[in-house]
Amino acid sequence: MIDRYPLRLPGDFDGEVLTRDQAGYDSARRPVGSAGAARRPLVVLRCRSVRDVAAALGYARDTGIALAVRGGGHCFAGRSSTDGILIDVSGLRGVDLSDDGTVTVGAGVRLGQLYGALHSRGRTLPAGCGATVGVAGLVLGGGIGLLGRLHGLTCDRLVAATVVLADGSVIDCDEHRDPELFWALRGAGGGQFGVVTSLRLATVTEPLTARVVLTCLDGDPARVVASWQASAPDAPDDISTALELTGEPGRGVRVVVSGIAVDAARAGAWLRDLARDSGAGARLSVADPVPFTLAKWASADPRQDVGDGRLRSEYFARPLPPDVVTDLLALLTSGDAGHHRRLTFTPMGGAYNRVGPADTAFVHRRERYLLEHVGHRGDPWVDASWTLAHPHSSHRVYPNFPDPLLDRPADAYWGTNHARLAVVKQSYDPQHLFGFPQSL
Ligand SMILES: Cc1cc2nc3c(=O)[nH]c(=O)nc-3n(C[C@H](O)[C@H](O)[C@H](O)COP(=O)(O)OP(=O)(O)OC[C@H]3O[C@@H](n4cnc5c(N)ncnc54)[C@H](O)[C@@H]3O)c2cc1C
Questions:
Q1: Alpha-carbon gap, residue 166 to 195, rounded angstroms
Q2: What is the structure's pLDDT at 339?
Q3: Where in the chain is the domain with CATH 3.40.462.20?
Q4: Domain 7-88 classified CATH 3.30.980.40?
């Protein structure tokens, strides 16, 4: 089919062009996870510059072939994979920290690279956990992480972005220039309005943080869930602890509360209270404070195990009723042997919720926690567990954890911001050059 669409990229396209018969094509086309892994793009255009991106978009416009934009390739719904033109921006790798504390980041930069560069200058960002996750993909959908209760979402630190629009024009947007696009990019920008080529973010001083881990050895897991739900979203902002319940059919449930804190002594007392309230015999470890970046990498990335698995999630604004928690725990270990399953409760509140729902496109500012159900791709438990919790949720979903099975995706991702986002979409991408299932 590519023969019918001879590549008419301008001579100044400086990137790499990979078609199906070329060496390197297969590794270039593959996303990180299994979602979208079967897609075979007609061509992968690996861009190295803003001009390359404009040329790639011109080719997509001229041929009418569908396109997808890829940064780090981690999308859980396979939205950065396509059978058409794959515009890969991973070659835009610059990181430039200014004296004013803002950092300009190319769209191909991964979290690990960014954390490392900032750490060497005593700075950091509230951002996610996966070292290979693309910074642009993370920021454009929000950006939840261990410093989020203290400093907000990664997208709350965005001060400007450079974007190549559908017509090939290049714009810099911020609070004053193209403010509606700038608003929309903060939470709804992934693959929707244009290709972002760089982002300017306001960094924070890197704090000293202590890694804290509470492993529950006995007691009733349901009581730990109840105590965590009642207290973690209201804890002091510097205490960020996720509750993780892992289980396998035929085995017990492992219960761990872990995260980081700036004030180690206060976090230790808080965790001891949590264990006491839940009647759990527990092992508590509070490490010595170290620069945040080091504390962060000391823990395993909880989402690495999604790999070949599936993740479904929702936000919750109130605690789950006790009988639902009991049923969720029973379900975690029921069914066929051999399936590793995980429920993760991530606390919101704090700085996340001090930004209004309409201040950025990221609408989820009144939630208490996010609940993830992670299991093997073929395990019906993921849907059964999600369905059990769903009636008690806010029916809202984090845009960076897209879920192809949602009944009302626009409502789930954008809530009351949907109408305004539809107007932004119409003004910046009227021909819907950028699109995927569930896009605006
Ligand atoms: C192992 C793992 C750990 C994770 N940890 C966290 C975490 O701690 N916190 C958190 O909030 N999220 C986390 N996530 C979710 C992550 O934020 C999203 O998957 C994010 O969208 C990944 O971005 P990417 O660039 O790697 O992926 P991609 O698949 O390349 O892109 C994701 C989406 O953004 C679009 N996009 C990418 N780059 C651009 C661009 N330059 N311009 C326009 N659109 C673009 C793509 O088209 C696609 O729709 C994790 C995911 C994984 C797999």
A1: 8
A2: 82
A3: 208-413
A4: no
Give distance in angstroms: CA of 286 to centre of ligand 1.
Answer: 31
Phi, psi dihedrals of residue 147, rounded to the nearest 5°: -95, 10
Residues belonging to the chain: 440
Residues touching ligand 1 (Cβ under 6 Å) are 33, 68-76, 79-80, 89, 107, 128-130, 133-134, 136-138, 140-145, 190-191, 195-196, 301, 303-304, 306, 400
- What pLDDT, in 10s, does the model give residues 222-242? 999 999 999 999 999 999 999
Query: 208-413 has which fold?
Result: Vanillyl-alcohol Oxidase; Chain A, domain 3 (3.40.462)
Contact by Cβ (8 Å): 418, 170: no
Residues of the chain with CATH 3.30.465.10: 95-205
CATH code given to domain 95-205: 3.30.465.10
Residues 6+ apart with CB under 8 A from 185: 140, 155, 158, 161, 163, 173, 193, 196, 361
The pLDDT score that the predictor gives to residue 304 is: 63
Å from CA of 3 to ligand 1 middle: 32
- Residues of the chain with pLDDT below 70 are 1-6, 299-307
Q: Give ∠ CA 266-268-273 in degrees, rounded to 5.
A: 95
